[in-house]
Structure formats: structure tokens, C-alpha cells
């Protein structure tokens, strides 16, 4: 009788030890694999984000580096909005923190120009061919000295954001990359 109790106790001890061993082994394997996976994840992010250094030519696409020109509306914690007049046509782009073209945050809008010349003062904005921004097909006659009221539609019910600023003809020319951007708001 004494032998059976010892045998039973040994079996219970071995089974109990095996029940604990499997979760401990699983936990150890998961713990050891975490630093390797995290390191691979960080190195994969660094490889994916390649910031171009060469200025792209219009028409721009998302992820390209545009020339610095026009008026920049800085929005804390968000992309900045770039309003420019190129070849006498209006273009609006969203610029990310790296200075690259970002996906447009609006699908429509309009612009009112108050100033000289008084030929046309209202322009509708639609997505441009590359879908990297908004633009107007109407010609903006020079000289470009305007008080601009920019409305960007944000939702389907017509709610949106309104920005007002002064646009000067000197903002049409690209800025050298080494100098500060005098056209942005603080």
C-alpha cells in the first residue's frame, strides 16, 4: 500500500510540473522574441520613410517635394496649407511636417480675391488632375496683389474652414531653400 501512494505522488508531481512548464516556456519564447520584433519594426519604419531632396516639377503628386512659393497657412499639429499662383492659375496643396505634398484634406472650396485687377474675383476650387491638391482652371490676371478669402469645404453638409491673408506678386517666385520662408503665418 505504501508503494502505491509514492507512485501516485510522483505522478502528480510530474504532471503538475509539466502543467507549469508549458506556460513558462511559452512566456519565455514570447519575451525573447519581443525585442527582436520591435527592433525589426523600428528599422522597417526608417527604411520606408525616404524624404526626397530634389525639388519636383509640377504637377505634383503626394509625397513629392515642391518648391517653396506662395503663401503658407500654418496649422499647429496638422499639415500646413500652401496657396500659390503658378502660370496665372491658383493651386492649393497640403504640406506635411517634412515639407512634402500630403493627401488633400478637402475636396472642394472657393476663393475670393479682393484687389486689382477687378476682372474676376470668385474662383471655384476642384481637385486637380494628379489629385494632390485643389486648383482653379480660371486665369488670375497679373499683377497679383490681393486680399484672399479661402474657403475649404471639410464635410458634406458644407461646413468648412475660412482663411484670410494678403497675397503679393513676390510670392509667385520660388524661395531659395537656404533662406527662411517669409510668407508663412506664425
Give the helix/strand layout:
Elements: H1 2-48, E1 71-73, E2 80-86, E3 89-95, E4 101-102, E5 109-116, E6 122-127, E7 133-135, E8 145-153, E9 160-167
Antiparallel strand pairs: 1-2, 2-3, 3-4, 3-7, 5-6, 5-8, 6-7, 8-9
Short descriptors:
nine-stranded antiparallel β-sheet, Immunoglobulin-like
Could you tell me the CATH topology label of the largest domain. Answer: Immunoglobulin-like
Helix and strand pattern: HEEEEEEEEE
Determine and state the CATH class of the largest domain. Answer: Mainly Beta
Largest sheet: 9 strands, antiparallel
Whole-number average pLDDT?
A: 80
Count of helical regions: 1
Structural domains: how many: 2
End-to-end Cα distance: 90 Å
Work out the number of β strands.
Answer: 9
In short:
The protein has 186 residues and is α+β, with helices and mostly antiparallel strands.
Amino acid at each position: 500500500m505504501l508503494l502505491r501512494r509514492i507512485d501516485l505522488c510522483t505522478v502528480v508531481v510530474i504532471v503538475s510540473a509539466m502543467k507549469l512548464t508549458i506556460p513558462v516556456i511559452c512566456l519565455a519564447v514570447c519575451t525573447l522574441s519581443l525585442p527582436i520584433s520591435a527592433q525589426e519594426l523600428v528599422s522597417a519604419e526608417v527604411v520606408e520613410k525616404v524624404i526626397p531632396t530634389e525639388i519636383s516639377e509640377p504637377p505634383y503628386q503626394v509625397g513629392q517635394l515642391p518648391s517653396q512659393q506662395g503663401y503658407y497657412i500654418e496649422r499647429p499639429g496638422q499639415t500646413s496649407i500652401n496657396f500659390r499662383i503658378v502660370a496665372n492659375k491658383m493651386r492649393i496643396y497640403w504640406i506635411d511636417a517634412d515639407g512634402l505634398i500630403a493627401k488633400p484634406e478637402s475636396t472642394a472650396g472657393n476663393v475670393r480675391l479682393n484687389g486689382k485687377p477687378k476682372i474676376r474675383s470668385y474662383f471655384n476650387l476642384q481637385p486637380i488632375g494628379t489629385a494632390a491638391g485643389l486648383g482653379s482652371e480660371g486665369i488670375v490676371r497679373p499683377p497679383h496683389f490681393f486680399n484672399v478669402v479661402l474657403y475649404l469645404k471639410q464635410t458634406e453638409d458644407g461646413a468648412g474652414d475660412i482663411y484670410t491673408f494678403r497675397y503679393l506678386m513676390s510670392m509667385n517666385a520660388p524661395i531659395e531653400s537656404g533662406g527662411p520662408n517669409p510668407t508663412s503665418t506664425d
